[in-house]
Design the sequence.
């Protein structure tokens, strides 16, 4: 069973920041928070991951609360190509298995 | 560029046919690979863990005799859907961890299997 809770869908405007929330209240100290996205009919694409600290890369930023029970994925300037299903996944440090929940369907509108 | 290659991208075949799907890690070795299945409008479901040099580990409810997995080398895992039937039609996706530690898994582009 997925250990995360995400809103089923959200819309955002092209060029604006998209903030995707994720709750993982039962996360343990040795579990990462990973974000992937899946564009229609393609394999999932890795976005970013973190353990305790906030992270940023060329695609997005990941903000993890101090208690680690929730996080937010930030797409700084959403484009139409960012329309996808976004998955927030909690993964143990020593286990590569990924358990996908329903994710958030993000639609970027012009 | 892609780090995990999956082939074929699409297969259409008759009921009763066995279908083999290949998953290759490009420019890195993968002692472990994963196979997922995704039905329309649903999320990915892990089917099995492919282990180089040993038997695959199947998730509960996945028939190991139906879905044969062979991890022939450090860069290749194959999934064979034996005697496929229409209910096996699905999107099959493989993945491989890039390296040890906190590195992410990378996914192939998936195989769309349609059984007529």
Sequence:
């Amino acid at each position: 069973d997925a250990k995360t809770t995400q809103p089923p869908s959200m819309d955002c405007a092209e060029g604006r920041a998209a903030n995707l929330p994720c709750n993982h209240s039962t996360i343990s100290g040795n579990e990462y928070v990973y974000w992937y996205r899946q564009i229609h009919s393609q394999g999932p694409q890795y976005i970013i991951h973190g353990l305790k600290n906030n992270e940023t890369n060329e695609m997005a930023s990941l903000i993890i609360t101090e208690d680690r029970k929730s996080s937010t994925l930030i797409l700084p300037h959403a484009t139409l190509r960012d329309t996808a299903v976004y998955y927030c996944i909690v993964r143990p440090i020593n286990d590569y298995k990924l358990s996908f929940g329903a994710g958030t369907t993000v639609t970027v509108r012009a | 560029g892609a780090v995990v290659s999956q082939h074929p991208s699409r297969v259409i075949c008759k009921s009763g046919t066995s279908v083999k799907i290949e998953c290759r890690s490009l420019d890195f070795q993968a002692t472990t690979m994963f196979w997922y299945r995704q039905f329309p409008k649903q999320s990915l479901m892990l089917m099995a863990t492919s282990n180089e040099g040993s038997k695959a580990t199947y998730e509960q409810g996945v028939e190991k005799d139906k879905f044969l997995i062979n991890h022939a080398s450090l860069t290749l895992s194959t999934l064979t859907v034996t005697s496929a039937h229409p209910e096996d039609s699905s999107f099959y996706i493989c993945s491989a961890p890039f390296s040890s530690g906190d590195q992410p898994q990378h996914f192939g582009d998936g195989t769309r299997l349609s059984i007529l």
Summary: The mean pLDDT of chain A is 95. The interface with chain B takes residues 32, 34, 36, 38, 41-46, 49, 51, 87, 93, 96-103 of chain A (CB under 8 Å).
